[in-house]
């Protein structure tokens, strides 16, 4: 865990505990990171500082409103970056911006993976899977995330192969519904 992560997490936990000054410092520190993130991302789409500042404010508001949903057992920065990414995607949808709007010489930069994407996605998937019933969690975790066969997962969890298949099918459907609900918020 980096020093920045430790400091930010300590401020978040203090803020969750009712320390308004710590919460204010957290939002101030996050605003610096978010501003740099949005300026870098939006520049690729020909957008400026004004749009970046709007997104910073939207993200900070979402962080403030959703602070109760942060799990102290997890890292803070992937949680923050997930919110920031969702706000960016929403903005790009609203403004009908697409990769086609980007000059061809900048296309490689746009297509390159963000450093935080893998961590954010991993955090998002784990968090959503935890909302599923245990059998679905086990089946999806074993087969889809660990790469076990259905037969291996069935042996591991002492379930039938059809039970594993049904749990995966229903679990993936439930995950899709959870993701759809989160995208709307």
UniProtKB/TrEMBL annotation:
Residues 28-96 form the RNA polymerase sigma-70 region domain. GO terms for molecular function: DNA binding; sigma factor activity. Keywords: DNA-binding, Sigma factor, Transcription, Transcription regulation. It holds the Pfam family Sigma70_r2. Residues 124-175 form the RNA polymerase sigma factor 70 region 4 type domain. InterPro entries: RNA_pol_sigma-70-like, RNA_pol_sigma-70_dom, RNA_pol_sigma70_r2, RNA_pol_sigma70_r4_t2, RNA_pol_sigma_r2, RNA_pol_sigma_r3/r4-like, WH-like_DNA-bd_sf. Coiled coil: none annotated. The keyword DNA-binding applies. It comes from the Bacteria. Gene3D superfamilies: 1.10.1740.10, Winged helix-like DNA-binding domain superfamily/Winged helix DNA-binding domain (1.10.10.10). One of its GO terms (biological process) is DNA-templated transcription initiation. Belongs to the sigma-70 factor family. ECF subfamily. This is RNA polymerase subunit sigma. The lineage of its organism: Bacteria, Pseudomonadati, Pseudomonadota, Alphaproteobacteria, Hyphomicrobiales.
């Amino acid at each position: 865990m980096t020093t920045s992560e430790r400091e930010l997490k300590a401020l978040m936990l203090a803020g969750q505990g009712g320390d308004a000054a710590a919460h204010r410092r957290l939002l101030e520190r996050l605003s610096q990171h978010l501003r740099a993130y949005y300026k870098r991302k939006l520049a690729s789409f020909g957008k400026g500082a004004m749009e970046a500042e709007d997104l910073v404010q939207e993200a900070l508001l979402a962080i403030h409103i959703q602070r109760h949903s942060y799990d102290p057992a997890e890292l803070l920065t992937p949680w923050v970056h997930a919110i920031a990414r969702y706000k960016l995607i929403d903005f790009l949808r609203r403004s009908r911006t697409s990769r086609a709007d980007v000059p061809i010489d900048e296309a490689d930069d746009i297509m390159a993976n963000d450093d935080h994407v893998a961590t954010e996605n991993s955090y998002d998937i784990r968090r959503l899977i935890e909302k599923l019933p245990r059998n679905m969690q086990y089946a999806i975790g074993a087969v889809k995330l660990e790469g076990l066969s259905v037969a291996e997962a069935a042996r591991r969890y002492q379930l039938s192969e059809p039970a594993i298949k049904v749990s995966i099918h229903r679990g993936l459907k439930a995950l899709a519904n959870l993701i759809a609900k989160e995208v709307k918020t």
